[in-house]
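Target protein
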Amino acid sequence: MAPSARLAREFVREILTEGHNPVEHVEDFVLVVSELVTNAVRYGTEPGDSLLVVLDTDDDRTRVEVHDTARRLPQPKPHSDERGRGRGLHIVDALANWGTGTRPLGKYVWAEVEKL
C-alpha cells in the first residue's frame, strides 16, 4: 500500500509544482490524493488489482479521480479517539469537495480543491 500512496503523492506534487500553484494548494491536494489512494488500496482493490489516478487542473481548481475495482462506495467512519485509522474521508471532507461515481468495473472517488 505505501508505494501506491507515495507514488501518487510524488506524481501530484510534481505536476502541480510545475504549474506554479500556491504551496498551500499543492500540499492540501497532495494530502487529499494520499488519503483517496490509501482508501482505494485498502478497501477497493484485491492483490494484483490496479487503480487509476486522473488529475485535472486549471486556473480555478484541481480535481482528482481515483478509480478502483470495488463497487462498494466509501462512507466516513464515526469519530473515535481509540481507533488509529478511519479519519481519511474526514480529512478529505475538510479540504475538498468530494463524491463518488460508478463505472462498469468498479467506482471512482473524486475530489476538487479550489485554488487559493
